[in-house]
Amino acid sequence: MSEANGVYPPSLPRPLIERAVYAALAEDLGLAGDLTTQSTLAPDATATAVIDAREAGTIAGMALAQEAFRQIDPELTFEALVSDGDTVSAATDVARISGNARAIMSAERTALNFLNHLSGIATLTARFVAEVSGTSAQICDTRKTTPGLRAFEKYAVRCGGGANHRFGLDDAILIKDNHIAVAGGVSAAVKAAQNFAGHLVAIEVEVDTLDQLAEALEAGANAVLLDNMDNKTLRRAVDLNKGRARLEASGGVTLDRVRSIAETGVDYISTSRITMAAVPLDLGLDVQID
């Protein structure tokens, strides 16, 4: 991932990384520390280890892995051999760590947990992105994320070439079916949101039918989420919209179907699969033996 196309690579705030890694290490080490390592390795033993990809995929989470080793022992040397967003083949070395053997062993699992999980998300996202290549549609995530890991999982989506939907309830207005039911209809809900929101807050409304879409467009929604519509209905929605609002297709999005959804002309395709159904990428750490 480079700046050559005018898009800067994603990054994570340093305090966020430090806090998450600290909590993960505290959970793993408990009150007594790494009993296995303490009982089997001399305190002054040293080692060099390599993290390698055991299958092809897209890397994400390198900074979190590095931070795990740094927090255990700042004297460890961590050399990143690839960058987040890079696609690697099986048997590719992605990082090399050297220094105190006890420290390497104690940080290993926490580092790999972050790296494997986030790389799995980046890899699946990249597959979805590849499927819609050549269309104008963008692949987006949702708020369906692992509690406590949202920022990192959404970061991994960007590493895979996807785009982020809202991060939480506080950064955009998305009027869903239950809001509409209680508010008394699409128009009433959108008008109330417009009266409440600041000028920088986008308003999106979820609709199930073309009649609701027409009502949302008339009310002036910035974006409309087309929920669980078949491709024929999505194409009719694009025609009805005439470019007035940004259109997002969601629901029933699979790798087999995503290309046909993109070809209907929608602007965005959001799916929880890329965060909730991604299989961790198989990355492992092995000590190098001379």
Task: Explain what this protein looks like in three dimensions.
This protein is α/β, with parallel strands linked by helices and 290 residues long. It folds into two domains: 14-121 and 279-287, Quinolinate phosphoribosyl transferase, N-terminal domain (Aldehyde Oxidoreductase, domain 3), CATH 3.90.1170; 130-276, TIM Barrel (Alpha-Beta Barrel), CATH 3.20.20.70. Helix content is 42%, strand content 18%. It has a six-stranded parallel sheet with strand order 6-11-10-9-8-7. It has a four-stranded antiparallel sheet with strand order 3-5-1-12, with helices on one face. Strands 2-4 form a two-stranded antiparallel sheet. Helix 10 (258-262) links the parallel strand 10 and strand 11 (268-270). Helix 4 packs across helix 5 (150-159). 40% of the residues are buried.
